[in-house]
Amino acid sequence: MNGLSLTLDQLKAINPFTPAWFNAGFTSNVTAFMPTGNSLYHAFSTQLTRRFSRGMQFVGSYTWSHNIDDNTVSHFSTYLTPRRPQDFGDLRNERASSALDRRHRFTLSWVYEMPMFANSQHWMVKNIIGNWRFTGTYTAESGAPVTPQSGLDSNLNGDSAGDRVVINANGNASQGSDVTPLMNSGGKIVGYLATNPNARFIKAGAGVFPNAGRNTLLTPGINNFDLSLSKRFNLSERKVIEFRADATNAFNHPQFTPGLISSVKLTSNTTTRTFLLPSNPTFQQWNQVFNSNARQMQLAFRFVF
User: Is 166 domain-assigned?
Assistant: First the structure.
């Protein structure tokens, strides 16, 4: 280790900048929300529609998109992606897939009015056996991107928000690793050794400049069915009674997503970012931080007059 001449103490002794406000009497850092940011959106979408015929109609839609920006949540609305740039002097280095990027999204919605006895002239037959409606929506969506973080000011620029990680391009994408300090004969830290050299995401210790971009990790995607079955009784031309059963996530697929299973919105801010720290055992353990969106069912009664 003595061959590595630069120590962590030497790096800490370097003052990277002298803020102008120090000369104005301020003695601590000033946090500012700068009105700067850039975004770019590419997309392709297509739709297939069957108009209502013989009791059936459906609409299927597919969208490929890529949302790119250099800042998504500057006002600290979530732990899922850093709120400030890693290098204040290089905003371009923040350019990456947005936290709102959903690369693929497919939805299929349908209405099926069961044809049995639909045209019967007998009230009892038509309303007791017939008048059933089956509707639903299927949604398949790519996972939301989040940012693995080291949880400390790795690049020593004085920003307590912390920095990103070091990427081991040949490492296992499902694994993260802590690091062990390497010291010279004088007891000074001169480098770090990854605890798990086979991991893709490595914690950036103090004095290390991380090479990871923003939002380099995908959370689980969405594979969801919302279904509804209703029974209608026509009391007269204007009066209708309807009983309906609705099921959200009808097949109870565990869907650990930071958003909603019916929307592309990012809703989760979480109360901790430990699952984004490669040094933490909960790293990428989505089932420990996000709701599974378990099946929900409801019964409804409607009277139309």
Answer: yes
